[in-house]
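Q: Please design a sequence for this.
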């Protein structure tokens, strides 16, 4: 039973998931600090409030005669935080992985092994290409 637990813990997916959670938590704290310390106060200053979280407050009457606060600025701050996190995840993780996957797929279709680069053209191939381009250029009538 203990050996099975050891196998489970040392399985690659569990370790990778644990690292992802730790890095994700640290990343979230970083983004939250940037949004709360820089972006929210800057937008709040535009709206004449201490921060975005305290801006756009609507007071509504309650049944007991008091008031309740609708914090639209806090909701807007959460939406802004989400958009920033999503943008960073997309541009830092998703887009590069999509590029690498596309490149690997192109290499697979070309019949190249994953780690090898395509052989550079030989001198004869380059000279033939230059010859063909020059012939094409010379056979094209000049523009009036």
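A: Design:
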């Amino acid at each position: 039973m203990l050996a099975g637990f050891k196998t489970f813990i040392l399985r690659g997916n569990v370790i990778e998931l644990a690292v992802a959670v730790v890095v994700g938590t640290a990343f979230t704290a970083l983004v939250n600090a940037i949004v709360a310390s820089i972006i929210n106060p800057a937008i709040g200053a535009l709206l004449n409030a201490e921060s975005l979280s305290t801006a756009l407050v609507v007071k509504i009457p309650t049944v007991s005669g008091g008031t309740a606060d609708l914090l639209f600025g806090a909701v807007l701050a959460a939406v802004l935080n989400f958009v920033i996190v999503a943008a960073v995840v997309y541009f830092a993780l998703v887009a590069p992985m999509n590029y690498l996957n596309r490149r690997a797929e192109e290499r697979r279709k070309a019949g190249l092994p994953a780690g090898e680069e395509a052989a550079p053209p030989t001198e004869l191939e380059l000279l033939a290409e230059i010859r063909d381009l020059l012939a094409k250029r010379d056979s094209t009538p000049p523009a009036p």
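Q: Thanks. Anything notable?
A: The CA atoms of residues 42 and 51 lie 7 Å apart. The longest strand covers residues 57-61.
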